């Protein structure tokens, strides 16, 4: 295994033969830029894509400072390999990627309203139709969406997230973590700090186990080399993804990151509001996942969310970091798939809530 000191630097990652293939060219079934938030400080254009054409509607909500292609493992699995069963919506939250980045106060509830406008635009309006997965800040947006339209939620997966950000360490440690998010740093330091915050060291050192698209994958553009390559370690793949995002100076801007960070920092759902979500969505339709090695949103946040929400499935995963859909991609995908099946079965049985 490679040690921390042996991990390749930015220049070495950029020179890696697999770097140009880091972001897969997965062709969406539908895509667009929808002007949202008219009358709410907009219009704000939100860039979205739907992958697959199946009857089961899946929504993937990304976290702080991250773009929709970070869901590419899930997009590949649900929207391409199983695109006849699922339709998967991915999008860039306001402030990131190809969406607009207005300098204004963001909130998780306003961002949920942005998403709701996309869903209405797509005609995804039926009762119990939406299978929603949100990670980190995306999980906060998912809570807000479920609070607004509980009757439309088929299943709700809250991953590495919180009802509200609380200080679960010492005051100085907490302040240092928050301040360091905004301190200017070299690209090398930015990538290594992100890796440390988001993943367990054990996973970063393991060989890259990504299942990449092949020429048999539906609706994928194969690179000129004839195949999508892999990296030596998980750290290298993460670093390549992080660099592809950070070097997109139009897509990744500090103002958008700061506005999103404010939204996440001020997110708040009370115990009573979470109980209401549980009552109206139905607890058997809800899953909470959190890892014990989460350095971004510490595990007490996940425990409290489970305690207050009382989801049908609540898992504290030993040794896992913040980004389940990468670090535990197979476990994550299997768990989400099982929640979708439970939600679909509950809907067919005519169960709108389970108290």
UniProtKB/TrEMBL annotation:
The keyword 4Fe-4S does not apply. One of its GO terms (molecular function) is hydrolase activity. InterPro entries: AB_hydrolase (IPR050471), AB_hydrolase_1 (IPR000073), AB_hydrolase_fold (IPR029058). SUPFAM superfamilies: alpha/beta-Hydrolases (SSF53474). This is Related to alpha/beta hydrolase. The keyword Hydrolase applies. Keywords: Hydrolase. PANTHER family: AB HYDROLASE-1 DOMAIN-CONTAINING PROTEIN, HYDROLASE, ALPHA/BETA FOLD FAMILY PROTEIN. Residues 85-328 form the AB hydrolase-1 domain.
């Amino acid at each position: 295994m490679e040690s921390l000191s042996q991990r390749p630097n930015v220049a070495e990652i950029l020179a890696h033969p697999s770097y140009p293939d880091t972001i897969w060219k997965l062709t969406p079934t539908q895509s667009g830029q929808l002007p949202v938030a008219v009358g709410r400080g907009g219009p704000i254009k939100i860039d979205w894509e739907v992958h697959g054409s199946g009857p089961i509607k899946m929504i993937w909500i990304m976290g702080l400072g991250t773009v929709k292609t970070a869901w590419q493992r899930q997009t590949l699995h649900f929207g391409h390999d199983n695109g006849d069963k699922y339709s998967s919506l991915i999008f860039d939250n306001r402030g990131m990627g190809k969406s607009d980045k207005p300098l204004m106060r963001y909130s998780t509830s306003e961002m949920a309203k942005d998403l709701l406008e996309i869903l209405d635009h797509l005609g995804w309006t039926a009762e119990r139709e939406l299978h929603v997965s949100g990670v980190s800040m995306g999980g906060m947006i998912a809570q807000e969406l479920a609070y607004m339209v509980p009757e439309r939620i088929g299943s709700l997966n809250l991953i590495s997230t919180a009802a509200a950000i609380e200080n679960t360490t010492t005051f100085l440690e907490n302040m240092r973590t928050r301040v360091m998010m905004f301190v200017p740093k070299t690209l090398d330091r930015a990538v290594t700090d992100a890796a440390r915050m988001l993943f367990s060291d054990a996973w970063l050192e393991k060989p890259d186990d990504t299942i990449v698209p092949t020429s048999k994958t539906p609706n994928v553009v194969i690179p000129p080399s004839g195949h999508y390559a892999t990296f030596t370690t998980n750290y290298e793949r993460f670093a390549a993804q992080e660099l592809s995002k950070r070097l997109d100076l139009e897509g990744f801007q500090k103002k958008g990151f700061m506005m999103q960070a404010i939204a996440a920092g001020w997110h708040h759902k009370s115990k009573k509001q979470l109980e209401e979500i549980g009552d109206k969505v139905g607890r058997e339709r809800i899953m909470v996942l959190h890892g014990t090695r989460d350095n971004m949103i510490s595990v007490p946040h996940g425990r409290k969310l489970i305690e207050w929400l009382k989801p049908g499935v609540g898992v504290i995963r030993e040794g896992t970091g913040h980004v389940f859909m990468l670090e535990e991609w197979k476990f994550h995908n299997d768990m989400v798939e099982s929640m979708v099946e439970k939600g679909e079965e509950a809907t067919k049985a005519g169960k709108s809530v389970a108290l």
